[in-house]
Automatic annotation (TrEMBL):
It is a multi-pass membrane protein. The lineage of its organism: Bacteria, Pseudomonadati, Calditrichota, Calditrichia, Calditrichales. It is found in: Cell outer membrane. This is TonB-dependent receptor. One of its GO terms (biological process) is siderophore transmembrane transport. GO terms for cellular component: cell outer membrane. GO terms for molecular function: siderophore uptake transmembrane transporter activity. InterPro entries: Beta-barrel_TonB, Beta-barrel_TonB_sf, CarboxyPept-like_regulatory, Plug_dom, Plug_dom_sf, TonB-dep_rcpt-like. Residues 387-868 form the TonB-dependent receptor-like beta-barrel domain. It holds the Pfam family Plug. The keyword Membrane applies. Belongs to the TonB-dependent receptor family. The keyword Metal-binding does not apply. It comes from Caldithrix abyssi.
Amino acid sequence: MKVSRLPLLLLFIFVWQSSVLYAQNSGKIAGVITDATTGEPLIGANVVLEGTNLGAATDVDGSYIILRVPPGSYTVSVLYIGYRKVVLQDVKVMTDLTTRLDVQMKPEAYEGEEIVVVAEAPVIRKDLTSVEARMQAEEIKRLPLQELGDVLNMQAGVIRDAGGGIHIRGGRSTEVSYMVNGISITDDFTRSQAFQVENESVQELQVISGTFNAEYGNAMSGVINIVTKTGGSEWQGNLDVWTGDYVSNRTGLFWNIDKVNPGDIYNLQGSFSGPIIPNKLNVFFTGRRYYNDGWLYGKNVYLPQGRMQPVNGDTVAVRGDSSAVPMNYTDRYSAQGSLEWQIIPVLKLRIDALGSREKRRYYDHFFRLNPLGDRGDEELGYSVIGKFTHQLGKLTFQELTYAYKYNEINSRLYEDPYDPRYTHPDSLNTGSFQFAKAGTDLGRYNRYTRSSIFKWDLTSQVTNRHQIKGGVEYQADEIYYDDLTLVPATDANGQQIEPFLPEIRDISTPVHTRATRNPYKFAAYIQDKIEYESLIVNVGLRFDLFNPNGKIPYDPEDPNVYNPFKDIHKYKDINGDGVIDESEKTEDNKYTLAERESFWYNETKPKTQLSPRLGIAFPITESGVIHFSYGIFQQTPDYRLLYVGDQLKVTSAGGTQGPYGNPDLDPQITTQYELGLQQQFTDNLAIDVTGFYKDIRDWITTAAPTPTILAGVSYVRYTNRDFANVRGLTLALKRRYADHFSFSIDYTFQIVEGTNSSPEQEFFSQIGGAEPTRVLTPLDWDQRHTVNATFYVGGESWGTSFISRYNTGQPYTPELVTGTRTGQSILSGLPKNSRNKPSIFNVDISAYKNFQLTDKIGIQVFLRVYNLFDADNPVNVFGDTGEAGFTFRRDRTPQADPGWFDIPSFYSEPRRIQIGTKISFN
């Protein structure tokens, strides 16, 4: 008996360690099978998805439902004794949606006679109760889309800010949840994507910008749900090789791109998939090596270790060789694979592994002439997902999932903190508006987040009209971070050691922060999809609980446990009178750090939130549907805002210090309303018009300064106080691919106003002497007008595509020069974000030609050009002129280094050309 129970025990352990996800990764096929002559329902007709084990038999009313169909294209066969077999080809299934297939069958005249029909996917989706955008693998291949971010850029309601952050419907860039196969791959420390998912892996990309269902949580603005490929019934694969470079005439701005070097950008990617055991065990794998030198280069004029050497009675910095050094490069390895095992007809196991390792650097203008002194980042991220799908009955199944997610970032110049190449911090001291002539970046940063994710989901089509889905999810996190600045080593007398030696100070000091935190999340949801001919309703309720497992000082006037200000916190009150007298102020009577920590903190409390969701669609005609949706969405603040600096190491140095993390922050809340219309004009052309309004509360900002017991010393922590609202309209016109061409045009108008664009903005504004924000102003990404357009023409053997983008400029805060005194300008700040940057226009193009070498092997050659017209698109401007290339500061600052005000990062990337080939086999 013990042996026979072991497999069940192992299965139970796996099931118990199962999941934190948010989405179903399958769709549904439903319809009615009838007699073509009489219209009578056919009872017991078989509907089968060829190449799979999915299918259903019709009920007494001729209806059928097939659940858990992965997104993709299928061939569906309908069989009934005495009737001609009907084969429907190219049936499209999408995640969370119902594909209707109503079939009229004709009596069989001859044995084996069948009817073959190419299914036409509906141009509008009648069961869509909120706005979303979807792209299948075939669509992604047709367009010049290299990365996942390129795909997101083309969606209505999605914009990028000057720093590259993605904003959906006006929310902050941290309000997007990234998911793969129902698992969150969002790194909760910064709310960014934990690792790169390559386009080659994507079967379907779903961008939900509207009111999403209750199964989705911890996101306020949008959900990006990626369903990855798995192996099919036949072996196939490809090898994709291309190279390229930046080609631009703007060499005065973008130095070192005047010569074409194909090695500056290159890509090597391959994939294969197929059945290891037909109809039982399938595999998919893809790997990629990608390098891009970037378009922003530094000039190695000065050396980091250079010293000021006497020359003819003067001193100059030791010179470098003036070679080009890339300052915004990307160097990435990535791999993704899946294994799908149909254990028995009612039980399937799928295992996915995805990950990437990337080295990169962000341009720092200060280091432009000393580029070897600046540090870069190295990021490692991966996830392993195991999911059991168990068919409990004809129309009921459950999913049990476990996932492990890891993200780590290292940022440093040299691996060894005691590397002799580090230089004294004074080496970086320069005058205003001057480049670094020597010196090294002394900062070092290491941070990782590891998550164990568990989930159980149950889906049941309880009647033909009601599909109920519910589940619970749990996520346990471990966050570790170590952030420090190297300082000059000192001897026993506190004197700096000469020559310079770097030193790591203790974590009790402000220059070194190290901590580990262990928060967890729990959620439960239930939702019902109600489907009638004239009404579709998605209604749900979600419960979220977050426990930060944090601590906050019990005495706000004396927050630093390492260096307390009050005597009562330094020394033990031996006589218990509540006062520390002189006799008690001895070294032997001091509290140890461990003793202080035992009484210093109060525990934070768990946070809970209920979030109702409602979406309603009204088909008004066969070709038109109106939808309305409403929802409340909550999101846990970034872990960075909760934990970094939560030790509150306030010093006696004076002034307002911070901002510091606050583990007692509440969830942020967004309430969204949406009203829209889908209307089909022709068999292939439709429009979607949607208006939306968002009310955002409890955004994170900085609190008013908290005074300490020391005069002139205060500190600032994060708090829930900011708010914003967004109102907008999107129009999307789309012609699906037919007769060798397709196109889409979408337009977004939106107004994004709030109190502050970032959590830190209020703090730095007040430090600069500004008044606290009391009114709504345009936020940094308030992009009023955005137009995206795509066009594709071609077929199996050749094709070409265009992507065009236009948007009005995002706002900036202007500066007004009111006078000068002793050579210094006096600037008067005008209202925040009261002017707009110039508009941006961009065109990308791609073309390909296919050659069939054999029945099984084909080759494609392709050309891609990004920023075809090499447009001068500014992403940042000088506040005094509103231009990226001109400022009056140039004339007012004679001490500025030549070239200081020529900032290439103020512009988007120049023209980029890629050429390559893809070899495919099947």
